[in-house]
Fold:
Amino acid sequence: MPSDDFVARRDAGAGWHAQMPDDKAMLRAARDLTKDIAEARPAIYWPDMIGSALLGYVAIAAAILVDGALEKIAFGIVGALAFYRALMFIHELTHIHKNALPGFRLGWNLLVGIPLLVPSFMYEGVHTLHHKRTQYGTVEDPEYLPLALMKLWSLPLFVLVSLLAPIGLIVRFGLLVPLGAILPPVRKFVWQRASSLSINPEFRRRPPEGDISKRVFWQELGGMLWAWALVGSVFWLGWAPLVTAGAILSVTALLNQLRTLVAHLWENEGEAMTVTAQFLDSVNVPPPGYAAEIWAPVGLRYHALHHLMPSMPYHSLPEAHRRLARELGVSSTYHGANHKGMATLVGRIARSTMTPRG
Structure:
């Protein structure tokens, strides 16, 4: 259990050691109190994903067709938020049991992944490395950067570079995939450096193995053809539709990067961490307040809790949080991962970047 001053230290920005002992009572409660809500429910997943995607398509079409600037902006915001929620189901795909939601991976890829040029292979087999006990927070973690220990200017750069994502994805699928089919060195480079949704520049993806190899082929083929269709659309529709859609999806990428910025505290210097230390370096933004449901949809406002129970379906995380908070109390380790909101978290990370270090 944590010391009595843990919460005060947490709120003051004090860190904790990567090898702090695991809170076995918390880990046991997470296991025992949530067994009855651990099953993914298709009746929730399918309508949520399809509805979010369809709303995104309607909004993006409206933004292209309307004339007024304010109307374009309004529809663009709706489209960016809707596609953002639809896109976040890629996170669920990496954790749910392969037999839990028959056809969901294929449906998501056809409706969201390939049209947005982010097919599921770019996350599958990558994100699970972030959850490995011995790799989280180390140089082998594709989704970890010690942002709180870097320079202050790195934070806006980290966020703003995401605005280029639509252009980068069109180049990756439309140009580099066919080049890689001809030139093996290009193919190797693209697979290692541009085939995963990672933020660690040192990460190199290993060759695909097993079932994912076949999925990679078809998903890359679909992405390549779609990228060609997008570029080709300029010749009969002009630049305006593609630029409008690209701008909306740039906002989607920006939202995701902002969420990533505050998904962890980023205070680890590369050392392997205990499960409890990983949990406390991760972030919950629980109710009250609704803003987190917008910038951290599909259960991602409970990101620390997700690190305790990676396979828990997103629709069960709110109830799991309520049970654990009630059982463990505000002085527990569990409460130490709960934070007020994005602004508070960004401020904490920014202050950490300005702290002198020897």
Residues 6-39+274-353 form one domain.
